[in-house]
């Protein structure tokens, strides 16, 4: 039975339930101080652009992207983080990658990094946007999520030039305690627990799998943090494990961020920050290791 405190079991939410959910959301950290300030510090060595603005009530959130110095003819590498605002290492891992490694790839790839796609959700440590919409199921034409629509518009001019897209995420204990129950309640469905994997894993594109690429990323991340094992059903979060630490989704069909281009190489990282075997620093470092390994593999095999 759905025991989420908002809504009636078996009935999808209407406007009243969404408003009740929104009223519970509280600002817990600062996008300006923690993200925009970090981006500003990078402006002396990278190109920073505002690609949109979110407007929720009286709040305004500039949407920012970072580029290295682009050169005609180089492949594009797209790095996205914070599509789910509560997934902290996705945001700070992307920023740390730019700070520590963007210079290494100068003249080799054109980097386009959107480190915090969902700043309202970042501040609330929330999965959805203010309208109770999941941006990471909304990357499609006429998107219901302004966050997703803005990123699609940013990427559109270079969409066919993208060699690699790596989308940085986390799987947290609150997925099971809050976000999946909320999803079930919102959609009027029963909540079915599926467990939280202890460790890092990747999501490949089932429509265009690249198993060797995924394993190269796994091998690099394993030097930083542990890899999630399969459960007793040989699954991770209800999906069959196709290789060590890898599951597959039809990325574009599901409206997922990693499916917004025709890149040859696509992956979604999933860090587990709640593990007693991982620190916030390790989680950020795991995201950085994944990005570097992904770029290195793509360049070696393009």
From TrEMBL:
Record domain Peptidase M14: where: 27-302
SUPFAM superfamilies in the record: Zn-dependent exopeptidases
Known cofactor(s): Zn(2+)
UniProt keyword annotations, A-Z: Hydrolase, Metal-binding, Zinc
GO biological process: proteolysis
Pfam families: AstE_AspA_cat
Classification lineage: Bacteria, Pseudomonadati, Pseudomonadota, Gammaproteobacteria, Aeromonadales
Gene Ontology MF terms in the entry: hydrolase activity, acting on ester bonds; metallocarboxypeptidase activity; zinc ion binding
Keyword Zinc attributed: yes
Family: Belongs to the peptidase M14 family.
Name by which UniProt lists this protein: M14 family metallocarboxypeptidase
InterPro entries (UniProt xref): AstE_AspA_cat (IPR055438), Peptidase_M14 (IPR000834)
């Amino acid at each position: 039975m759905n025991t989420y405190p908002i809504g009636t079991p078996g009935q999808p939410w209407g406007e009243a339930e969404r408003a009740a959910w929104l009223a519970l959301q509280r600002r817990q950290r600062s996008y300006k101080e923690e993200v925009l300030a970090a981006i500003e510090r990078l402006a002396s060595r990278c190109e920073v652009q505002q690609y949109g603005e979110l407007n929720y009530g009286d709040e305004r959130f500039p949407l920012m992207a970072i580029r290295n110095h682009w050169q005609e003819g180089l492949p594009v590498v797209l790095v996205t983080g914070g599509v789910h605002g509560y997934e902290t290492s996705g945001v700070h891992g992307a920023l740390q990658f730019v700070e520590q490694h963007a210079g290494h790839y100068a003249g080799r790839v054109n980097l386009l990094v959107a480190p915090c796609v969902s700043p309202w959700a970042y501040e609330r440590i929330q999965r959805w946007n203010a309208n109770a919409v999941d941006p990471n199921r909304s990357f499609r034409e006429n998107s219901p999520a302004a966050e997703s629509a803005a990123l699609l518009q940013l990427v559109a001019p270079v969409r066919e030039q993208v060699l690699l897209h790596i989308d940085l995420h986390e799987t947290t204990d609150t997925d099971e305690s809050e976000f999946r129950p909320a999803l079930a309640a919102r959609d009027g469905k029963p909540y079915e627990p599926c467990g939280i994997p202890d460790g890092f894993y990747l999501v490949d594109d089932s429509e265009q799998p690249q198993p060797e690429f995924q394993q190269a990323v796994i091998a690099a991340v394993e030097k930083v943090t542990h890899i999630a094992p399969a459960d007793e059903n040989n699954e991770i979060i209800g999906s069959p494990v196709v290789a060590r630490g890898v599951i597959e989704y039809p990325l574009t069909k599901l409206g997922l961020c990693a499916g917004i281009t025709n890149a040859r190489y696509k992956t979604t990282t999933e860090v587990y920050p709640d593990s007693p075997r991982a620190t916030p620093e390790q989680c950020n470092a795991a995201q950085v290791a994944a990005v570097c390994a992904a770029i290195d593999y793509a360049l070696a095999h393009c």
